């Protein structure tokens, strides 16, 4: 592991080994199979298959317009794909029952808070819909995040509204938490608090969490699973430390690269053609394989984002 990437203060949810425990895979919190979703002639999700296992914390990465919001909305049953199957807790996402719905928390990209309400009124309103509601958590977060309980929501700052939206999504202790760019208008202290809250949520309750973000430095602080979205699919998903250890860039003739990949048993993630018959490939080495004595270039998270999205 690269010490500069994961300082000793790295927050580490207990979930991350789940990803590799294929033998005892629990049933997925969310499962998407061969999903296709287009807006008119624009195909955004293309034969996309993906699953979120209980207790996983997944950071969803992709360039602007890659389809992250579309994917999260489809996953929640808010957008019907033209083809494919989406299940939440084993039920068709578009038709889940109230009990399954109560197990989901969602923070949309565009806050949908009722601006005429105060935070206290808003939270009281939502409390009436849920069988479970953690008042102590709500009160604790309102105080810690300094949100005025009785000020109209319209007069809260963008960051305060976003924090309120997060509190609302955490209050009923969901088993699946979906957040679309939840930290976009939070300052660094707010983002740190938010990440700590997410980790606590996973440690305390084993919540499955998926959130989209563009702030890569946050992901380096927490040992999340990362899912890279590109060309309408999840092109790669793995814990960040595994990616840092296993993904390498290597250059040579196509024949040399082909032979190297075969010898190492590596997976080719990207192929870039260069001039003069040369090529540069992004490869993923098998786990627990000693790094071979060939010129392989390591990548940091920003490199991975540039390559895989
Ligand atoms: N309601 C819609 N009608 C038509 N096209 C849409 C609609 N919503 C999104 N799109 C298009 O689908 C593509 C994916 O958009 P989406 O919002 O899912 O991407 P994103 O990865 O969340 O982007 P960003 O990082 O900028 O938030 C974009 O090209 C967008 O213009």
UniProtKB/TrEMBL annotation:
Transmembrane regions listed in the UniProt entry: none
Top-rank taxon, per record: Bacteria
Pfam family, one: ABC_tran
Keywords: ATP-binding, Cell membrane, Membrane, Nucleotide-binding, Transport
InterPro entries in the record: AAA+_ATPase, ABC_transporter-like_ATP-bd, ABC_transporter-like_CS, ABC_Transporter_VariousFunc, P-loop_NTPase
The ABC transporter domain, residue ranges: 30-256
Keyword set includes ATP-binding: yes
MF GO annotations: ATP binding; ATP hydrolysis activity
PANTHER family: ABC TRANSPORTER ATP-BINDING PROTEIN ALBC-RELATED
Identification of the protein by name: ABC-2 type transport system ATP-binding protein
Organism: Roseateles oligotrophus
Phylogenetic lineage: Bacteria, Pseudomonadati, Pseudomonadota, Betaproteobacteria, Burkholderiales
